[in-house]
Specification:
The chain is mainly α. It is built from 3 helices and no strands. The protein has one domain. Helix content is 86%, strand content 0%. Helix 1 packs antiparallel against helix 3. The longest helix is centred in the first third of the chain and has 34 residues. The radius of gyration is 21 Å and the shape is elongated. It starts with a helix and ends in a 7-residue tail after the last helix. The mean pLDDT is 89. It comes from Actinoalloteichus hoggarensis.
Length: 97
Protein backbone atom coordinates (compact mmCIF):
# COMPACT_ATOMS: atom_id res chain seq x y z
CA UNK A 1 0.00 0.00 0.00
CA UNK A 2 1.46 3.33 -1.03
CA UNK A 3 1.38 6.49 1.05
CA UNK A 4 -1.15 8.03 -1.36
CA UNK A 5 -3.50 5.07 -0.92
CA UNK A 6 -3.13 5.22 2.85
CA UNK A 7 -3.84 8.96 2.82
CA UNK A 8 -6.98 8.45 0.72
CA UNK A 9 -8.16 5.68 3.04
CA UNK A 10 -7.69 7.84 6.13
CA UNK A 11 -9.43 10.74 4.38
CA UNK A 12 -12.38 8.52 3.48
CA UNK A 13 -12.68 7.31 7.06
CA UNK A 14 -12.47 10.86 8.38
CA UNK A 15 -15.05 12.08 5.87
CA UNK A 16 -17.43 9.25 6.78
CA UNK A 17 -17.03 9.99 10.48
CA UNK A 18 -17.62 13.71 9.93
CA UNK A 19 -20.70 13.01 7.80
CA UNK A 20 -22.15 10.65 10.39
CA UNK A 21 -21.60 13.08 13.25
CA UNK A 22 -23.02 15.95 11.21
CA UNK A 23 -26.16 13.94 10.35
CA UNK A 24 -26.71 13.03 14.00
CA UNK A 25 -26.24 16.65 15.04
CA UNK A 26 -28.59 17.84 12.30
CA UNK A 27 -31.33 15.77 13.96
CA UNK A 28 -30.32 16.19 17.60
CA UNK A 29 -29.95 19.98 17.69
CA UNK A 30 -33.45 20.88 16.41
CA UNK A 31 -35.01 18.09 18.49
CA UNK A 32 -33.21 19.30 21.63
CA UNK A 33 -34.28 22.89 21.04
CA UNK A 34 -37.89 21.79 20.62
CA UNK A 35 -37.76 19.68 23.79
CA UNK A 36 -36.37 22.67 25.70
CA UNK A 37 -39.40 24.74 24.69
CA UNK A 38 -41.72 22.03 26.10
CA UNK A 39 -42.58 20.18 22.90
CA UNK A 40 -43.37 16.47 23.41
CA UNK A 41 -40.32 14.31 22.80
CA UNK A 42 -41.80 12.24 19.98
CA UNK A 43 -43.00 15.34 18.15
CA UNK A 44 -39.61 17.01 18.65
CA UNK A 45 -37.85 13.90 17.33
CA UNK A 46 -40.12 13.71 14.27
CA UNK A 47 -39.58 17.38 13.48
CA UNK A 48 -35.85 16.96 14.11
CA UNK A 49 -35.72 14.08 11.63
CA UNK A 50 -37.49 16.08 8.93
CA UNK A 51 -35.37 19.19 9.54
CA UNK A 52 -32.19 17.10 9.76
CA UNK A 53 -32.89 15.50 6.40
CA UNK A 54 -33.37 18.86 4.73
CA UNK A 55 -30.38 20.45 6.42
CA UNK A 56 -28.08 17.56 5.56
CA UNK A 57 -29.16 17.58 1.91
CA UNK A 58 -28.26 21.25 1.60
CA UNK A 59 -25.36 21.72 4.00
CA UNK A 60 -23.53 18.41 3.58
CA UNK A 61 -23.53 18.23 -0.22
CA UNK A 62 -19.75 18.85 -0.62
CA UNK A 63 -18.91 16.21 1.98
CA UNK A 64 -21.24 13.70 0.30
CA UNK A 65 -19.57 14.42 -3.04
CA UNK A 66 -16.09 13.78 -1.59
CA UNK A 67 -17.28 10.51 -0.07
CA UNK A 68 -18.85 9.41 -3.36
CA UNK A 69 -15.66 10.12 -5.31
CA UNK A 70 -13.52 8.30 -2.74
CA UNK A 71 -15.83 5.27 -2.77
CA UNK A 72 -15.81 5.14 -6.58
CA UNK A 73 -12.00 5.28 -6.63
CA UNK A 74 -11.83 2.55 -4.02
CA UNK A 75 -14.22 0.35 -6.02
CA UNK A 76 -12.09 0.85 -9.16
CA UNK A 77 -8.90 -0.10 -7.31
CA UNK A 78 -10.55 -3.19 -5.84
CA UNK A 79 -11.88 -4.19 -9.27
CA UNK A 80 -8.43 -3.83 -10.84
CA UNK A 81 -6.86 -5.89 -8.06
CA UNK A 82 -9.52 -8.55 -8.49
CA UNK A 83 -9.00 -8.72 -12.26
CA UNK A 84 -5.25 -9.01 -11.72
CA UNK A 85 -5.71 -11.81 -9.17
CA UNK A 86 -8.08 -13.70 -11.47
CA UNK A 87 -5.56 -13.39 -14.31
CA UNK A 88 -2.81 -14.73 -12.08
CA UNK A 89 -5.00 -17.65 -11.03
CA UNK A 90 -5.59 -18.46 -14.70
CA UNK A 91 -1.83 -18.36 -15.26
CA UNK A 92 -1.85 -15.20 -17.35
CA UNK A 93 0.53 -12.30 -16.90
CA UNK A 94 -1.94 -9.53 -17.74
CA UNK A 95 -5.67 -9.43 -16.92
CA UNK A 96 -8.07 -9.85 -19.82
CA UNK A 97 -9.91 -6.66 -20.69
Amino acid sequence: MTEDTAAKRSTLGTDLLLYTVARVLAVAVPATILVLVNTPVLVALAVGLVLGLGLSLVLLRPLRARISVALAERAERRGAARRQLEAQLRGEDEPAT
